[in-house]
Here is the input.
Amino acid sequence: MKIAVGTDHRGVDALSHIVNALEHKGLAVSRLGVCDEGICDYPDTAYPVASAVAAGQVDRGILICGSGIGMSIAANKVKGVRAALVHDEIGAELSRSHNDANVLCLPADLLGMRLMLRIVDTWVATEFAGGRHARRISKIAAIEDGRHPNDTDRPAKLLG
Here is the structure.
C-alpha cells in the first residue's frame, strides 16, 4: 500500500512518528505536503496529498493539523476524496468499512501520540465492507458531480 502524508506546522512531530510506524510495517510513504519550517497553511499541505489520492498515484492519504478540521475541509474539496476526521479507533474503522475513506485527518492538538498511532493502525488495516455501503458511496459521488443522489438523471438542487 502507498500512503501520501502531509501536515501543517501543528502536526510535524506527530507525522514523524506516524511515518516511522508506517514504514516499519513495510508501507511506502510519500511526504507530499509537509511543512518544513515556520507556519504553513493547511490547504497548501492538504492539496498535494488529496490530489495524489484522487489521481490514483497513492492508495490513501493521511493529513494532520491542529484540529484536523481544516485538513478535512480542504481535502474534501478534491473530487474523489473522502476525507474523514477521526478521534478514536471506532471512527477509524467505520470511516474505512462504511465510508471507504481514502484520506485520514488527525488532530495533533487534541490526541496523544499513542492514540493517533492506534487510529492509524486501525485505519490502514480496515478494508471497505462494500454491500449497502457501496451504494452510499455512489450517492456521494453523484453529489460530487452535481447530481441528485437518488436520481442520477436529475441535477442536484443548489442552495441559495
Summary: Residues 2-128 form a domain with the Ribose 5-phosphate Isomerase B; Chain: A, fold (CATH 3.40.1400.10). The chain has two domains: 2-128, 130-160.
